[in-house]
Amino acid sequence: MKMNQKRLCVLLCTLFLLMPGQMACAASLPERVAALEAELGMSAEGSIGERITALENMLGIEPAPGTASVDRIAALEKDLGLTENPAGENERGGPEDSVLLSSLEPFTCSYVFTDFSTRQYKDMYGGQHPSTLFSEASLGFGDNEVEYLLDGAYREMRGVLYIPKGLSSLVEDVDVLRAKVKIYGDDRLLYTSPAMQRKDEPSPLRVDLTGVRFLKIVFEDAQDIGGPYIVIGDAELIR
Q1: 106, 174: one domain
Q2: If you average pLDDT over residues 230-239, what whole number do you get?
């Protein structure tokens, strides 16, 4: 009896391994890096470490010192939405619970517009973003930043960065390139926006907020008296 059970077990294991599509090998690190480069339209140049760094620079991700390459790649995949979780589902497979960032009252706010703006809600390519966040001209009287009290209730912020359609034709490209958006969690830098040019299409934004109590968004050199150079649209918080 025991011998028959052993033979049956061996047979079942053999059949399982021979089934097509079963136990497919996971993609190697170079393959995952190549997929990320293809997603961003980047060329594969340099060592794996150099290519990962170039991807991080493109997305404004700053890994903690000593972070393993596999973890850095996973962070890049998550930022681009290339993880295996279906869109609209949380890690447990259920529907995501999200709120618009504009529905929260800022804890502090200094020269940042935090609600809908008919002038700024269109991007250069005709996209519409009813929820907008952008800096206002402070004329040197204050920083352009807004802070929200999250109390660790959210795991991620999502949105899109774009050049507003209403950008003045008098604005130089060098001004737009200099504009930056930085996002902090409890005063720790979590995200720095990539440099954008006038012809760049809207860029997705995803920031891990796990455990963050205070979320702060800072705009640097991102506007003049005529309006903003760069806008955060459709910002939402995911529980």
Answers
A1: yes
A2: 93
Predicted model pTM: 0.61
Helix-then-strand count for the chain, H and E = 5, 13
Residues 126 and 161 in one domain: yes
CB 147 within 8 Å of CB 116: no
Exposure of 171 by Cβ count < 10 A (0-12 exposed, 13-18 middle, 19+ buried)?
Answer: middle
Is residue 146 assigned to a domain?
yes
Cα–Cα nearest to 120, from 144, 143, 100, 136:
136
- Would 7 be classed as within a structural domain? no
Torsion, CA 138, CA 140, CA 144, CA 149, rounded to 10: -100
Cβ-based neighbours of 126, under 8 Å, separated by 6 or more? 165
Q: What is the CATH number of the domain that holds 142?
A: 2.60.120.1060
pLDDT tens, position by position, 125-174: 888 887 889 998 877 666 899 999 999 999 999 999 999 988 878 788 88
User: 109, 115, 113: which is closest to 148 by C-alpha?
Assistant: 109
- Does residue 15 lie within any of the structural domains? no
Domain that holds residue 66: 30-84
CA distance 120 to 167: 9
pLDDT at position 24 is 33
